């Protein structure tokens, strides 16, 4: 066995982005979407999530540890690139650049978002409709939330495309092309769910 | 009588350690010129556009038919071969720069040694030497030979490395060309006997296959139209399977 773990770390980084983080983002957006049906329905959904057994362990194993690894290793990857979209303005080169930009936006947002919600909960605040409504009462916060929702949705959608290439699932140009359509479909659908949900708190 | 001229703006550099500068040249127009013949004209009469005597611009070229890769340079913003860059098809002033992803030796001459070192690292050859006659190797299916032939067109010109956003001073990435050669030599029935060894090299060494960020500039930039991103994706599949075999164990280690 070699001592160089780069192959393993890169593959792990790609996998964690889809499972559990991608799956978590989908569930998270779907629960947020409950707010569209009113504060009571949303509060019921969050209370159900909080009632799950082994919640703290599950949070660490499925969310915090993967996101810290994916985020930190992702920053290392992002800052290795020397972007050249002005010379090579091809679609995939833009996707390459946007994947890194949206990743950086998302990780910065997540740090703020976790501080504002999960850490406040740990300090005694109650997570409910009013908590979010208070946060997005500020137009600046609302705009930042919308930017981050679009960024995270793009990062997941396009990340699924990269995942398929990284693991050798889509090899032919044709399969990669179709995966581009699927990835952009995921981006649009996730953006819609996320933005409609956040606007329900306004 | 106004004589037609060609204007070239050349990014020059005395040696690797000195700062680059731009020098402009105006040379008389002839029909059917390429960038090489324009550079030859400057060499014949090394006088810049201001009329000052200067040193001749250094460049490299060998075959003059786009199969050796030696004359690669950045022409009007894009890396390509100077021999097939026809003056009549280029926008003027023609801007020539060295491919500075590689160490610049002088003017337009770069040192592509890292690519040749990479080919050695991945063992981009078919080992057929023995202490006795090994006889004929296994036959190669025609369908496979046809796509493998496309990969064999690689001339190590360096254009794909120049276009890649992940090949730079902050990264060790080996680049698309040598990776595609791994696929080529693993496809050969005799070369396949060292398949696992080649795959492990691009898995275990610094700057291996997983450094690819899928910007796919390489496949757009390649002057020979080599399906580099298909090679990379195919190697992703091969190395994924190889890593499973290596970790979980397999009776078949090739």
Overview in brief:
Chain A is an all-alpha fold and 202 residues long. Helices cover 77% and strands 0% of the residues of chain A. Chain A has a single domain, classed as Fumarate reductase/succinate dehydrogenase, transmembrane subunit (3 helical TM bundles of succinate and fumarate reductases, Up-down Bundle), CATH 1.20.1300.10.
| CATH level-1 class of chain A | Mainly Alpha
CATH topology value of chain A: 3 helical TM bundles of succinate and fumarate reductases
Strand elements of chain B, count: 7
Q: Which pair has the most extensive contact?
A: A-B, 36 and 39 residues
Helix content of chain A: over 70%
Specify the overall morphology of chain A.
globular
Please tell me how large the radius of gyration of chain A is: 18 Å
What is the CATH-assigned architecture of the largest domain in chain B?
A: Orthogonal Bundle
Quickly give the structural class of chain A. Answer: mainly alpha
Q: Which sheet architecture does the biggest sheet of chain A show?
A: none
The best one-word shape of chain B is elongated
Query: How far is it from the N-terminal to the C-terminal residue of chain B, by CA?
Result: 72 Å
Total beta strands of chain A:
0
Counted up, domains of chain A total 1
Rg for CA atoms of chain B: 22 Å
Order of helices and strands of chain B: EEHEEEEEHHHHHHH
Organism (chain B): Evansella vedderi
Keywords (chain B): 2Fe-2S, 3Fe-4S, 4Fe-4S, Iron, Iron-sulfur, Metal-binding, Oxidoreductase, Tricarboxylic acid cycle
EC number (chain B): 1.3.5.1
GO molecular function (chain B): succinate dehydrogenase (quinone) activity
Detailed description of the structure:
The complex is a heterodimer of chains A (202) and B (254). Chain A is an all-alpha fold and 202 residues long. Chain A has one domain (6-81, 89-199): Fumarate reductase/succinate dehydrogenase, transmembrane subunit (3 helical TM bundles of succinate and fumarate reductases). Helices cover 77% and strands 0% of the residues of chain A. Chain A has helices at 6-18, 21-33, 39-50, 55-78, 91-122, 129-135, 139-166, 173-199. The longest helix of chain A is centred in the middle third of the chain and has 32 residues, at 91-122. Chain A is globular and about 50 Å long. Chain A starts with 5 loop residues before the first helix and ends with a helix. The model of chain A has no long low-confidence stretch (mean pLDDT 96). Chain B has 254 residues and is α+β, with helices and mostly antiparallel strands. Chain B has two domains: 5-110, Ubiquitin-like (UB roll); 113-248, Alpha-helical ferredoxin (Fumarate Reductase Iron-sulfur Protein, Chain B, domain 2, Orthogonal Bundle). Chain B has helices at residues 35-44, 113-121, 142-151, 159-163, 176-187, 195-204, 217-221, 228-248; strands at 5-12, 21-28, 72-75, 78-81, 94-97, 104-106, 109-110. A five-stranded mixed beta sheet of chain B has the order 2-1-5-3-4. A two-stranded antiparallel ribbon of chain B has the order 6-7. Chain B is elongated and about 75 Å long. The termini of chain B are far apart. The model of chain B has no long low-confidence stretch (mean pLDDT 95).
């Amino acid at each position: 066995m070699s001592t160089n773990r780069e192959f393993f770390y890169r593959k792990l980084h790609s996998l964690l982005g889809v499972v559990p983080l991608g799956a978590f983002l989908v569930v998270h957006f779907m629960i947020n979407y409950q707010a569209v049906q009113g504060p009571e329905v949303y509060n019921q959904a969050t209370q159900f999530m909080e009632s799950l057994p082994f919640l703290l362990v599950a949070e660490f194993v499925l969310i915090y540890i993967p996101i810290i690894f994916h985020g930190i290793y992702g920053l290392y990857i992002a800052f290795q690139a020397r972007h050249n979209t002005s010379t090579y303005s091809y679609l995939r080169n833009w996707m390459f650049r946007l994947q890194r930009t949206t990743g950086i936006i998302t990780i910065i947002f997540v740090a703020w978002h976790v501080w504002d919600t999960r850490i406040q909960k740990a300090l005694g605040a109650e997570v409910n409709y009013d908590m979010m409504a208070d946060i997005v009462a500020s137009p600046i916060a609302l705009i930042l939330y919308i930017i981050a929702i679009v960024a995270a949705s793009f990062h997941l959608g396009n990340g699924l495309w990269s995942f398929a290439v990284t693991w050798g699932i889509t090899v032919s140009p044709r399969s990669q092309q179709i995966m581009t359509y699927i990835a952009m479909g995921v981006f649009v659908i996730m953006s819609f769910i996320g933005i409609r949900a956040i606007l329900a708190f306004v | 009588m106004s004589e037609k001229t060609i204007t070239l703006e050349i990014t020059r550099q005395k040696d690797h350690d000195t700062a680059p500068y731009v020098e402009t040249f105006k040379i008389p127009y002839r029909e059917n010129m390429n960038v090489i013949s324009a550079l030859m004209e400057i060499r014949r009469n090394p006088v810049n556009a201001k009329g000052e005597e200067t040193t001749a611009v250094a460049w490299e070229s060998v075959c003059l038919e786009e199969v050796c890769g030696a004359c690669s340079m950045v022409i009007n913003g894009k890396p390509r071969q100077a021999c097939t860059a026809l003056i009549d098809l280029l926008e003027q002033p023609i801007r020539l720069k060295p491919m500075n992803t590689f160490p610049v030796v002088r003017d337009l001459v770069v040192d592509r040694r890292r690519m040749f070192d990479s080919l050695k690292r991945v063992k981009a050859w078919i080992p057929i030497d023995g202490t006795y006659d090994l006889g004929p190797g296994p036959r190669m299916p025609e369908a496979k030979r046809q796509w493998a032939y496309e990969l064999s067109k690689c001339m190590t010109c360096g254009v794909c490395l120049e276009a890649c956003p992940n090949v730079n001073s902050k990264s060790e990435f080996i680049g698309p060309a040598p990776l595609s050669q791994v696929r080529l030599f693993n496809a050969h029935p005799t070369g396949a006997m060292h398949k696992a060894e080649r795959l492990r090299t691009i898995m275990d060494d610094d700057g291996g296959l997983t450094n690819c960020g899928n910007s796919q500039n390489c496949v757009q930039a390649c002057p020979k139209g080599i399906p580099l991103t298909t090679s990379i994706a195919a190697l992703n599949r091969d190395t994924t399977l190889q890593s499973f075999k290596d970790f979980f164990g397999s009776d078949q280690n090739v």
